[in-house]
Design brief:
The protein has 730 residues and is of the alpha/beta class. The protein has a domain at 518-567 and 601-723: Leucine-rich repeat, LRR (right-handed beta-alpha superhelix). It has 24 helices and 21 strands. The protein has a 21-stranded mixed beta sheet, with no helix packed on it. Strand 1 (81-85) and strand 2 (90-94) form a beta hairpin. Helix 20 packs parallel to helix 21 (631-641). The relative contact order is 0.05.
């Protein structure tokens, strides 16, 4: 990624200089009225803006690589300013940081200076400006404004809602309007008493959480009927019901241009959903429809799903959280035989039961269009799991399959066998299914053969340390997985050692040298000796930089690695399907997210994972929350961070690293320029550890958020911690 300073030309520098000068004057003027934390945040962001954008300072990691926005592709100048279009010099402004002090005068002054550059504006939670002044005085200063967000603005209500929706000036450039999470409607300001005429230029309107009643919904839709450009409408989390659905059906019959419609969490019954179906069957361009968490049941579901046999527009359908049943699933099964448009279907938590699950899953064998299916929380048992396994063997279209919180149990074996031959599945969620060790073993057996799986969630399955070890060993023979979640599985240090050895061996190419073990023992023995020698050198280098108290654990890990290589455990006879793994191919090249929360890896497990970090693996996110990691483990992880230039997020919340572990991490923060998010809440780091972290942040240029609450700090230290710009509430 290029440095953020390189994307700002001379004209941009002048604009941003103006912004800095103006906001600095504002900081000085409002100093007495701002909390200390707000003032420090503002000053820190301004200094970061000056150093990163105007002076061209390299914020890289020392290797010529920029660490700013490591995990995203958007050039971020500060938390409040983002470049959204370099060619037209448009920026996004988000003023939540200054939500307590921005008023009409300040906003007008800001927009007079550089309003022409504002393409997106977020004034959410800013409660001290008026909507009337914004519409009358500020909008004319924003000729290129395309997106406006006003969530959680207490001054926005039914009295000024009409004016905001109309934005009567034909020259208004706003295309996307988000005014959700506001109490727009009350008994004193009913939309039914008003004539709504929606701005004809709007293409997207969000009114989620706006207290809109059924009658208000009807009035709003009448105002939309003359709009030929609206493509997206979000009315979720309101109180609309069947009357609004009838009005919506009439709107569709007249040729509505809506493409995306979100009606989740309302009061739509069987009558309403059938009315909606009639309108869609007559004339509809709806591409994405969300009907989750409403009040319709199996009868309504059957009536609605019949449109899928004739409708050729809906590609994404979400009916989760409704009391559907087997009859609706039977309707979906019939529709999937003839419908070639639907690509995403969410039926999670719909009480379809075993019978409904079987009918639907069996239809997947012949369907060639559905790519994303969610059947979570439906009490599906092992018979449905067996059917899923059979369908996955012949279905090569499904890319995402979520089966979390069912009761699949032993059927994980069938799913594991299907993964060996399936060539399409990219994401599989089996969390909360009690697959235990046997299920983990079946999944482990499939990983060397599977070439498409990218995300795997096996959390909350009681696979134990032995099951985790099997998964870890098979990771070394898989080259596609980039996200692995093994949280809440009673894993111990053996699982971490296995995972660590797979990753470290893959980084060194050790996995490939072991593939010829049965054909040439001399070559194998020589490879092992070379690998062991290299491991020793790397361990010695790490040992020289570790504190004395951690060295015994590192030695234990090194001895364990050597024993495993000597016994040919790593990627050889104990690894299933290893004969199918082709020598010379990259292993584990894409693993970037490793989630091991709520296990019991302890200090030995943390030391094992510290080797992964110290060897600069491509992993960007590691989460080890609630793992009984103590001071030694915290020290090892902190010392390893000094040598890592890839890790962006490390979560150590709810452990026991104490002041000693915090000291090691603070030392790492002084030299590490890639870590952006750090979780240290609930670690008993006390005043000593907290103060060391605060000192380290003075030298750190990459960290954006840090969680350090619940750490036995005194009142004075807590106040200082809460004032640092990176502080984030847990």
């Amino acid at each position: 990624m290029e440095n953020s300073s390189s994307v700002v030309d001379d004209d941009d520098k002048q604009v941003f200089n103006t912004l800095i000068n103006l906001l600095q004057k504002y900081v000085d003027r409002m100093e007495k009225r701002c909390r200390k934390a707000d003032l420090l945040r503002m000053q820190h962001q301004l200094s970061m803006l000056e150093s990163k954008t105007l002076t061209g300072t390299n914020t890289g990691n020392g290797n010529g690589n920029t660490c700013n926005s490591t995990c995203t592709g958007t050039p971020i100048i500060s938390n409040d300013i983002t470049i959204i279009n370099k060619s037209s010099k448009l920026i996004r402004l988000a003023f939540e940081t200054y939500k307590g002090t921005l008023n009409d005068e300040t906003l007008c002054n800001v927009f007079k200076r550089f309003g022409v550059y504002v393409g997106e504006l977020d004034l959410s939670k800013c409660a001290h400006f008026t909507i009337e002044a914004f519409i009358g005085s500020m909008l004319p200063l924003l000729p290129n404004l395309q997106s406006l967000k006003l969530q959680f603005c207490k001054q926005l209500n039914g009295d000024n809602l009409t004016a905001l929706l109309q934005l009567a000036k034909e020259s208004c450039s706003i295309r996307h309007l988000n005014i959700g999470h506001n109490q727009l409607i009350s008994e004193a300001t009913m939309l039914t008493a008003r004539t709504i005429r929606l701005n004809p230029n709007l293409t997207s309107l969000c009114l989620t959480h706006s207290h809109i009643s059924d009658a208000d919904g009807v009035t709003l839709l009448h105002g939309i009927k003359d709009n030929d450009s609206l493509r997206s409408l979000d009315l979720s989390n309101n109180a609309i019901a069947d009357l609004t659905m009838r009005a919506l059906s009439e709107l569709m019959e007249r040729g509505s241009t809506l493409r995306e419609l979100n009606l989740s969490t309302n009061r739509i019954t069987n009558v309403g959903v059938i009315e909606l179906g009639k309108g869609m069957a007559t004339n509809s361009h709806i591409d994405c429809l969300i009907l989750s968490n409403n009040c319709f049941q199996d009868d309504g579901g059957v009536g609605f799903v019949n449109i899928l046999a004739t409708d050729r527009s809906v590609r994404h359908l979400d009916m989760s959280g409704n009391d559907l049943g087997p009859a609706t699933c039977a309707g979906f099964a019939r529709a999937l035989q003839v419908n070639s448009t639907l690509t995403s279907l969410n039926l999670s938590q719909t009480r379809i039961g075993i019978q409904g699950g079987l009918v639907l899953v069996q239809s997947l064998a012949s369907n060639k269009s559905l790519q994303h299916l969610d059947l979570s929380m439906n009490q599906l048992d092992h018979t449905v799991g067996m059917a899923i396994g059979e369908s996955l063997k012949s279905n090569h279209t499904i890319k995402t399959l979520s089966l979390r919180r069912n009761q699949l149990g032993d059927s994980a074996k069938a799913i594991g066998k299907a993964l060996q031959v399936n060539s399409s599945l990219a994401s599989l969620d089996l969390s909360g299914n009690q697959i235990e060790r046997k299920g983990a073993k079946a999944i482990a057996y499939s990983l060397p053969l599977n070439k498409t799986l990218q995300e795997l969630d096996l959390s909350c399955n009681m696979i134990g340390d032995d099951g985790g070890r099997l998964i870890g060993e098979s990771l070394g023979a898989n080259s596609t997985l980039y996200k692995l979640n093994l949280s809440s599985n009673l894993l111990g240090n053996e699982s971490c050692r296995s995972i660590s050895q797979s990753i470290v061996s893959a980084l060194k190419g050790g996995a490939n040298t072991n593939s010829n073990i049965n054909t040439n023992s001399d070559i194998h023995n020589h490879s092992n000796s070379v690998n062991q020698h290299q491991d020793k050198q790397d361990t010695d280098e790490l040992m020289s930089n570790l504190s004395i108290s951690s060295r015994s654990l590192v030695k234990e890990q090194a001895n364990y690695n050597s024993r495993r290589l000597a016994r040919h455990n790593m990627l050889t006879s104990s690894t299933p399907n290893m004969d199918k793994f082709m020598p010379g191919k990259s292993t584990l090249s894409k693993l970037s997210h490793l989630l091991l929360d709520k296990n019991r890896i302890g200090d030995p497990g943390a030391v094992a994972l510290a080797q992964v970090i110290a060897n600069n693996s491509p992993i960007q996110v590691i989460s080890l929350m609630s793992n009984m990691i103590g001071e030694f483990g915290g020290q090892s992880l902190g010392d390893a961070l000094k040598y890592n230039t890839n890790l962006c997020e490390l979560n150590l919340d709810s452990n026991r690293i104490g002041p000693i572990g915090a000291q090691a991490i603070s030392n790492a923060l002084k030299v590490n320029n890639t870590l952006t998010h750090l979780g240290l809440s609930g670690n008993h780091i006390k005043d000593q550890g907290s103060q060391e972290i605060i000192k380290a942040l003075d030298c750190n240029t990459s960290l954006k958020s840090i969680y350090v609450t619940h750490n036995d700090m005194s009142e004075g230290v807590r106040a200082v911690v809460e004032a640092i710009p990176q502080f984030t509430e847990a």
